[in-house]
What we know:
Layout: H1 19-23, H2 37-52, E1 66-71, H3 77-88, E2 94-99, H4 102-110, H5 116-119, E3 126-129, E4 134-137, E5 142-147, E6 161-165, H6 173-183, E7 191-196, H7 202-209, E8 213-218, H8 229-239, H9 243-248, H10 263-267, E9 276-277, E10 279-285, E11 296-303, E12 306-312, H11 320-333, E13 338-342, H12 348-356, E14 363-366, H13 372-384, E15 388-390, H14 395-403, H15 414-427, E16 437-438
Parallel strand pairs: 1-7, 1-8, 2-5, 2-6, 6-7, 10-13, 12-15, 13-14
Antiparallel strand pairs: 3-4, 4-5, 9-16, 10-11, 11-12
Helix pairs in contact: 7-14, 11-12, 13-15, 14-15
Amino acid sequence: MTTNPGPPNDWSGFMPLSSADWALLDPSNSSDWLRSAPDLKRWEEAWLRGWTALDHQKPPQAAWATWLMLGGRGAGKTFAGAGWVTDQAAKPCRMALVGPTFHDVREVMIEGPSGLRAMAQAGNRVRWEGSRRRLVWDNGAEAYAFSAEDPDSLRGPQFHAAWADEFCAWPKASETLAMLRFGLRLGEDPRLVVTTTPRPTRALKVLMAEPGVVTTRAGTAANAGNLAPAFLATLEGLYGGTRLAAQELEGIVVETDGSLFRAEDLARCRGAPPAKFDRVVVAVDPPATARGDACGVVVAGRRDGRAYVLADRTARGLSPNGWARLAVAAAVDFDADALVAEANQGGDMVRTVLAQAAPPCPIKLVRASVGKRARAEPVAALYEQGRVVHCGAFPALEEELMGLGDGDLGHSPDRADALVWALSELMLGGGREPRLRVV
């Protein structure tokens, strides 16, 4: 737990006190204003905790629905999460505490030296009810403990807020996070805090790319004043300059060796479409079997040397006529200049079924002469250069892009393949001379 270093030099960095804490400063609330020992003690504890929290341990100033704190080992993630939950407990509410295992929730998030029981304030103490696996504060606030090993345990309960710790160590991360979010439905502004040392998992990459998620980072060195003096020096001597040090000490998401698309590039590529496009295409990656893989359908436009991803209409379980109609409908909706379709699997059949759906634009068949990775590399470079904009939230597409080429996807990347064809056509010499259009 962070210790009291003495009065700060910069008072602008204080953590805002809760409404309950500020109420103690209002003489109109009580004739015994700040005269009782418990109130004095509680106010002192809240005040000290506010200014002993380091900047990286305070919630972001920007609006957020999910605060994702990525930190190195010992960066003070538990202190940050427990401090935020304690602030929420200043008024009666229901919260969820989720860790990799129930043991982690109890021993780290609740009983640990920076956990919730250590954070408890005089006048609003907290007690553990083991039979119900919950913490209860004196004012009626309560927090229930859950293990990420059992996502179904989160079916049914509902909450005002939640703290998820060591998300990258969760055994069923995506499933558990989804169940937790379905339960965040109480109050006017349900929020989720996620604290974790990062690992390059699909679940983390998808979370980072979601709208409404604000990510903050802190290396172990940011909390050096509260760690054993030799801790950092020893680990830097052993692991400095390695990928392990970047991940475990600096809190950086270290991409896997095969990854082409970085979470950071995808997270910053969102924006609005321009009023006019030079060219718009619909790219189609047909399924290999009649009703097997999904049919990738991605719409993209080009304007002034930048590509704009406009829609992902990928669908699964369609017949050839079904996916052809789906692609043609996208071409009509976006007034496309061309339908670009991969023909490696279906050959001329692809052109035939698309033509039967009466497309409003020419059909262009493309064939892959190299592997998926080689095709995607120049497109990944466009993202790294900041020349691609996602005009909407496309989490499934972005997940496939981040898994493309590293063997960590688990299914055919139909959406990603379609996007690669679309941007290759628009940005890498595949298209005809542009003309100005309004959409």
